[in-house]
Amino acid sequence: SGLFLFERATGMNRLLTGDVVADTPAMSPDGRFVVFSSRTVPGLIGGTDTHRQIYLFDRELDSLELIPVRN
Asked: Per-residue pLDDT tens for 34-44?
């Protein structure tokens, strides 16, 4: 399932994650950034990775990016 954000100003739910299945979301104190983990590979329907990936959604720039994680 995707990650939704309730926009209080509009009263609407907004899908933040596209085709990425989100786990363990957290929001920055100012509400600009949402970070979450996932094993889903964006753009590959049903695609998964054996390692959990970390994603950052920037509400101001309306962008989702994969955050590189070093082992």
From this structure: 999 887 655 54
Q: Is 43 helix (H, G, I), strand (E, B) or coil?
A: coil
Q: How many CB atoms lie within 10 A of CB 7?
A: 11
Q: Extract the tokens encoding 52.
A: 């959990």
Average pLDDT over residues 59-67: 87
22-52 burial string, b = 16+ CB within 10 Å, else e? beebeeeeeeeebebbbebeeeeeeeeeeee
What predicted TM-score, i.e. pTM, was given to this entire model? 0.73
Sign of CA dihedral 42, 56, 17, 46: positive
CB 22 within 8 A of CB 3: yes
